[in-house]
């Protein structure tokens, strides 16, 4: 049996103030065409279909269009909710939609939802386990001792493994941080603190293949048959070197796995460049990639007037401007900028700088600048936590 494994579409995502809905629509057209050409027996979507629990209308419309096209191709779709999704909303009408071979699992159940498909070698059972929040699983199984994601996943799987058919091949869809996976990417918030969000890959030994979602870089976790497909697009500058795509899986008669990663080609790339304003003005840049989403690290002195405007003359989709002089341990530490000018509107740090210069007649020292920036970052994180 051949199926496509994908995850972490994050429809409705906003990156650096820029809506990515058109970029998502663009790459999903390629995805649907891939399904049309490869003719898989199923498509698996392992969570985080939307970027937030209440997605914008454009995101819902886009998902509806993609599902309609897949159903027209007569390809069964098995999908689960991730930690970003609103599980009840996502699973609305699931019984009706299952008649059209769209099978969606929103909240964990005492018995994992199973979709059985057949090929010439017999049945393949797809176990759809949505994101299992410990507090939800604790209530579901009435086990007050459940406090970690490992315990929650174990409880969900234990009740279903006992019911697994003796014959056939078994595939699991899950949305979790499986031990052995890469570190949480910049664009994906941790599920909990102190390692309580980790799940051990040994829990999945009964499955021929485990189609994971949550981490955005494609990779195996624990063993080659336990895989993250990665996200649909690059959703942060930390992901600029990722190769985004889908997994095309062939499950043999014995349950052995053959896989192929198929790259998808975005409308715009996400990347970082290190350059001076003089280099921007004197060096030719390819028009083919000037629309990319950029983090521009400027090597000029920090005393610049509205440099974002000058940079955007060459790269209009510059989402983040970093002054290298203000980076910790500059110029080598380019991965964690402490200053970013993200729009034409003055940033808080700029207004504080202007006030300080007007009030005291000189500029902020480097330690003062870094301290203020740290305070602003802490406030921004607190605001994000409140919104979540």
Describe the structure concisely for a colleague:
The chain has 388 residues and is α/β, with parallel strands linked by helices. The chain has helices at 21-38, 57-72, 87-90, 94-98, 134-141, 149-161, 277-282, 307-314, 348-360, 366-387; strands spanning 2-6, 14-15, 18-19, 42-46, 77-80, 102-105, 113-119, 122-128, 169-175, 177-178, 198-199, 209-213, 219-221, 223-228, 245-251, 257-263, 270-275, 293-298, 318-323.
How would you characterize the overall build of this protein?
This protein has 388 residues and is of the alpha/beta class. It folds into 3 domains: 2-263, Metallo-dependent phosphatases (Purple Acid Phosphatase, chain A, domain 2, 4-Layer Sandwich); 268-345, no CATH class; 348-388, no CATH class. It has 10 helices and 19 strands. The protein has helices at 21-38, 57-72, 87-90, 94-98, 134-141, 149-161, 277-282, 307-314, 348-360, 366-387; strands at residues 2-6, 14-15, 18-19, 42-46, 77-80, 102-105, 113-119, 122-128, 169-175, 177-178, 198-199, 209-213, 219-221, 223-228, 245-251, 257-263, 270-275, 293-298, 318-323. The strands form 5 sheets. A 6-stranded mixed beta sheet has the order 6-5-4-1-15-16. The chain has a 6-stranded mixed beta sheet with strand order 7-8-9-12-14-13, with no helix packed on it. Strands 17-18-19 form a 3-stranded parallel beta sheet. Helix 8 links the parallel strand 18 (293-298) and strand 19. The longest helix has 22 residues, at 366-387. The model is unreliable at 331-345 (pLDDT under 50). This is Nuclease SbcCD subunit D. InterPro entries: Calcineurin-like_PHP, DNA_Repair-Maintenance_Comp, Metallo-depent_PP-like, Mre11_N, SbcD, SbcD_C. Residues 1-218 form the Calcineurin-like phosphoesterase domain.
């Amino acid at each position: 049996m051949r199926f496509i494994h994908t995850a972490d579409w994050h429809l409705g995502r906003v990156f650096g103030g820029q809506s990515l809905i058109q970029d998502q629509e663009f790459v999903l057209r390629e995805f649907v065409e891939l399904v049309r050409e490869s003719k898989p027996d199923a498509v698996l979507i392992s969570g985080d279909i939307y970027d937030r629990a209440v997605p914008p209308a454009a995101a819902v419309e886009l998902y509806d269009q993609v599902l309609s096209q897949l159903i027209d191709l007569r390809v069964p779709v098995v999908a689960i909710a991730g930690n970003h999704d609103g599980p009840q909303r996502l699973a609305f009408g699931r019984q009706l939609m299952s008649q059209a071979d769209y099978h969606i699992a929103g909240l964990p159940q005492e018995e994992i939802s199973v979709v059985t498909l057949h090929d010439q070698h017999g049945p393949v059972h797809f176990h759809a386990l949505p994101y299992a929040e410990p507090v939800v699983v604790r209530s579901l199984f009435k086990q007050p001792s459940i406090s970690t994601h490992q315990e929650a996943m174990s409880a969900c799987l234990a009740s279903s493994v006992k019911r697994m058919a003796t014959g056939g091949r078994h595939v699991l869809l899950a949305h979790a941080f499986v031990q052995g996976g890469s570190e949480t990417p910049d664009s994906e918030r941790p599920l909990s603190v102190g390692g309580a969000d980790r799940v051990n890959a040994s829990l999945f030994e009964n499955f021929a293949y485990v189609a994971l979602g949550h981490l955005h870089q494609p990779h195996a976790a624990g063993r080659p048959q336990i895989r993250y497909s990665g996200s649909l697009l690059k959703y942060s500058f930390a992901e600029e070197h990722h190769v985004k795509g889908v997994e095309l899986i062939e499950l043999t008669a014995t349950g052995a796995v053959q896989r192929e990663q198929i790259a998808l080609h975005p409308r715009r790339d996400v990347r970082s460049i290190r350059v001076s304003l003089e280099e921007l003005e004197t060096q030719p840049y390819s028009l083919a990639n000037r629309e990319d989403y950029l983090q521009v690290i400027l090597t000029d002195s920090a005393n610049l007037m509205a440099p974002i405007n000058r940079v955007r003359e060459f790269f209009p989709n510059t989402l983040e401007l970093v002054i290298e002089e203000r980076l910790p341990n500059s110029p080598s530490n380019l991965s964690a900028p402490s200053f970013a000018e993200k729009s034409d509107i003055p940033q808080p740090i700029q207004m504080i700088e202007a006030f300080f210069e007007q009030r005291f007649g000189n500029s902020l020292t480097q330690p003062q600048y870094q301290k203020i920036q740290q305070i602003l970052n802490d406030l921004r994180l607190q605001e994000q936590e409140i919104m979540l």
